[in-house]
Amino acid sequence: xxxxxxxxxxxxxxxxxxxxxxxxxxxxxxxxxxVICAVAGFFVLGIILGPAAIVCGWLAMGRRWNxxxxxxxxxxxxLGAIDILLAIVWMAGAAGPQML
Length: 100
Prior knowledge:
This protein is an all-alpha fold. It is 55% helix and 0% strand.
């Protein structure tokens, strides 16, 4: 028997993993974006790109801190935290007493 228009032979709907809308970025892309933000934050705007890297890494980890994590997401979180610390140290050094 052939399946006609509107009549399918599938008894169960497709799995949820295959029915994604595709409108949002996936986890691997977010991890890579986070790593790029973290590396760029070492050179410019670390105080802004550091938190952006942490957020992208956290979203790439599935918004949870436990369990197995993809490597780019973990790298993004760690480097983002280092970006923030270096930016704070740099600002504290720039605002400190100036000896001439």
